[in-house]
Amino acid sequence: xxxxxxxxxxxxxxxxxxxxxxxxxxxxxxxxxxxxxxxxxxxxxxxxxxxxxxxxxxxxxxxxxxxxxxxxxxxxxxxxxxxxxxxxxxxxxxxxxxxxxxxxxxxxxxxxxxxxxxxxxxxxxxxxxxxxxxxxxxxxxxxxxxxxxxxxxxxxxxxxxxxxxxxxxxxxxxxxxxxxxxxxxxxxxxxxxxxxxxxxxxxxxxxxxxxxxxxxxxxxxxxxxxxxxxxxxxxxxxxxxxxxxxxxxxxxxxxxxxxxxxxxxxxxxxxxx
Length: 273
Fold this sequence. Notes:
Layout: H1 2-44, H2 68-90, H3 96-111, H4 119-124, H5 127-134, H6 141-154, H7 159-163, H8 169-174, H9 182-196, H10 200-208, H11 212-217, H12 225-237, H13 244-250, H14 255-269
């Protein structure tokens, strides 16, 4: 009996050790999964600094290593910019359109400053309803472009920040039509690609709202960077285990060839070594 008791006491630490190792492995796996999730989202989303026009001269100021003081300043500037946009949206006098465009451009400039853009501050200040208003049909193309650009960068934020774009999604989809100004359509495709990159829930929302057919149609005229942006947005939209969206996309005449052509060009540009 003494021997059995001794054996029992000797085994307990071994069991405890195995349990600790297993727990440690679970923790490490959770950390790894979380890291992979963050890295996957970074790859799936793109901050729009240059915009749909391809103007490389658009200023992007600041340093990515933002200090707390700079962050507070940026948040304050963003809140002020949203207030200015609210004032401009309500203004009906002479030069109203240019006033709105200037306000949108300032907000866009702030949101494009870095990967740590002040999205949360803009949300708290009430930017989304104003930007949705600026996306309304009949608005000047320049205003539509700036509003879509701002919303594109909203969708690079945290999940809850991306979900805040829900009221704007039908407008983005509607502006994908062939009658839309091409830079506006491209910018809306970019925004939808960011939203789709957030995850399955928002992908399903976009699919239910009919985002796939107009995006697929944008692949057919070979418009260089527009096709690349659209192909990327579609690749985010059809992700996941459910093949329904991918099957629907394949049925669109000519889209598959454009997909292969687009990615072949990308591989030529960045060949494997």
